[in-house]
Amino acid sequence: MWIVSNNNQLISFLVSALFGVFFCLFYDILRSIRKIGYKSVLGIAVQDVFFCVAAAFITFMLMLRYTCGEVRFYIIFAVVLGFAVCNYTISPFFRGLLTFILKKICLLFWAINKVFKRLKFKTVLLFDKIHIFLKKYAKTLKNHLKQKRKIVYTNTDVKNRKDAKYE
User: Fold this and answer.
1) Burial class of 82 by CB neighbour count within 10 A (0 to 12, 13 to 18, 19+)
2) Cα–Cα distance measured from residue 40 to residue 114, given in angstroms and rounded to the nearest whole number
3) Which of 46, 12, 51 is nearest to 28 (CA)?
């Protein structure tokens, strides 16, 4: 069994509490995404499972770093305590600010999307006009390239004409 000094325990407790705060802020990002309109039940379940697995893996890595992989309940308690303290102090302000920023970003993307839709509509109209023009032009060219039989009278065949005057 590996002996952990009091100084090491205090440092690992504070680092674990800090990781609890980071977990809370990361979960606030997920909550803000849900708040602006992402409300699929399956999507929320997948997000929650991903969050829990990531938090458990990071907490395990934290325990490997500070206690050589031994389960020390004060580390788990510190993570939960850091999460709870952050959830009731910093989190409401952070979540409100993040939701505001994400709504503005969504509004910006909506405006950009609207501009591109208008451009798409205008370019489709332009290409339709170009297509119609090219079809008409191709038809005109086709008509001009056809061989038309025309009878051309020339003065070289004067002897065979009845009204020709012989000198």
Assistant:
1) buried
2) 25
3) 51
